[in-house]
Specification:
By secondary structure, the chain is α+β, with helices and mostly antiparallel strands. 14% of the residues lie in helices and 34% in strands. The protein folds into 3 domains: 258 residues, Thrombin, subunit H, CATH 2.40.10.120; 94 residues, Pdz3 Domain (Roll), CATH 2.30.42.10; 86 residues, PDZ domain (Pdz3 Domain, Roll). It has 10 helices and 29 strands. The strands form 6 sheets. The chain has a 6-stranded antiparallel barrel.
Length: 476
């Protein structure tokens, strides 16, 4: 979809789009010089060079890559993805929002994987193959937390399914190829290298992106990132950009994550994840010193949900989780992904540092409740770039909120008006223009009442603090 994400001056600027990898780079050999006679000689033949061409690979995979066209009714578009769009005539009444994205076939009977944001709130979905054939498609399942969606091309059979590879085996510097529809230009092929792995860009709790020097632009979202064997190793999703165009830093969801999620989307339409029942945070040098830690590794438990799995298993606030289910925790970002993959009801061993001593505990993993987002929308068609939901007793308990007043910000689109106003996921909106907010409907009404104002003043609770945010709704 032509979805733009920007974060400037310290906030990551992202345009949600499928990564088409940019121009490749040659590699030079290290040589022994007179100044360094003992330096090891690296032969040019030992270094992977630029392939002669990618034409055979492109021909092999293009039949399995699809162009996705969607239609959304503006009244249903909400604030989730404020990208530019044109407004054609709608014979059914009211304007429509149109956009394009990419995807790829994972089974011959028409199942297609793409980004959730490509098909979010779509009223019509069409997929177009490389040979020009078109099919109506429906959403079989979606997962907001990883931005993945599974589609089914209705009546399709005998499609060319792409082979799924192993993203864990990727190495920094490996060549990769991407195919997609930048700006609706179908079947565009580009190439580049893997720049980094395990990137956390703030898009969700399970960030683990492959970074590539990809040429990514609006309309590319959901297409495949492929290795040199033609296997899918990632689903291209976002780029860093200060202008909205490609600057050579793209991000793809590892295909191994998609391989775990896709079967659940096909079977249940959603993803079931394990739940530990703790709030965690990264260990900074200052925290490490305060807790008497020798190194900045592990996940610091900042909160334990009462009667949750961790509470029942004996974990305490201030514990540092250093090992989970036999796997060491180097960074706090690793723990949510580990917990999510554990089967519900399984008892796992957890090792924590508590007051300088290593403590062993056993925790029976619970099931994470899916939080359904209620996206606020108003008739002004001015996007805010965030989704909000009512605060239930369970949510208040899980987040450690003292009351259920206000509404919870469930998601903020990077680069959106909400992001520019420094609103974050997990914030609680208490007031709109100095008037208390009761629930989502009240919030929507107050935003509607302020539709003629250039700036809307919000009072936000963030942890133990409150702050004001000046929100300027976007233009379409």
């Amino acid at each position: 979809m032509q979805t733009k994400k920007y974060i400037k001056k310290g906030l990551l600027a992202l345009v949600i789009a499928v990564a088409l990898v940019g121009a490749g780079y040659g590699m030079s050999s290290a040589v022994k010089t007179a100044d360094h006679p003992a330096a090891a000689v690296t032969k040019t033949s030992d270094i992977p060079m630029v392939p002669a061409n990618f034409s055979d690979l492109a021909e092999k995979v293009r039949p399995g890559v699809v162009n996705i066209q969607v239609v959304k009714s503006v009244k249903n578009a909400g604030f989730e993805f404020p990208f530019p769009f044109r407004i054609p005539e709608n014979p059914h009444g009211g304007p429509e929002q149109q956009g394009v994205g990419s995807g790829f076939v994972i089974s011959a009977d028409g199942y297609i994987l793409t980004n959730n944001h490509v098909v979010h709130e779509a009223t019509e979905i069409k997929v177009k193959l490389a040979d020009g054939k078109e099919y109506d498609a429906k959403v079989v399942g979606r997962d907001l937390k990883t931005d993945l969606a599974l589609l089914k091309a209705e009546g399709a059979s005998g499609l060319h399914a792409l082979q799924l590879g192993d993203s864990d085996s990727l190495k920094v510097g490996n060549w990769v190829v991407a195919v997609g529809s930048p700006f609706g230009l179908e079947q565009t092929v580009t190439a580049g290298i893997v720049s980094a792995k395990g990137r956390v860009i703030g898009s969700g709790p399970y960030d683990n992106f492959i970074q590539t020097d990809a040429s990514i632009n609006p309309g590319n979202s959901g297409g495949p990132l492929l290795n040199m064997e033609g296997e899918v190793v990632g689903i291209n999703t976002a780029i860093f950009s200060q202008s909205g165009g490609n600057v050579g830093i793209g991000f793809a969801i590892p295909v191994n994550m998609a391989k775990e999620i896709a079967p659940q989307l096909k079977e249940k339409g959603h993803v079931t994840r394990g739940w530990l029942g703790v709030g965690i945070q990264k260990i900074t040098p200052e925290l490490a010193k305060s807790f008497g830690l020798k190194e900045e590794k592990g996940a610091l438990v900042s909160q334990v949900v009462k009667s949750g799995p961790a509470d029942k298993g004996g974990l305490e606030t201030g514990d540092v989780i250093v090992e989970f289910d036999g796997k060491k925790i180097s960074d706090s970002n690793e723990l949510p992904r580990m917990v999510a993959s554990i089967p519900i009801g399984k008892a796992v061993s957890v090792k924590v540092l508590r007051a300088g001593s290593l403590v062993d505990r056993e925790v029976k993993i619970g099931e994470m409740e899916e939080q359904k987002e209620e996206v606020a929308s108003v008739s002004t068609r001015k996007p805010l770039g965030m989704s909000v939901q009512n605060i239930t007793p369970e949510i208040a308990k899980g987040l450690g909120l003292k009351s259920e007043t206000g509404i919870l910000v469930a998601r903020v689109v990077p680069g959106s008006p909400a992001a520019k106003a420094n609103i974050r996921s997990g914030d609680v909106i208490q007031q709109v223009n100095k008037k208390p907010v009761k629930d989502v409907e009240d919030f929507k009404q107050q935003i509607e009442n302020a539709k003629d104002q250039e700036t809307i003043l919000l009072l936000i609770q963030r942890g133990e603090s409150t702050l004001f945010a000046a929100l300027t709704p976007g233009k379409v």
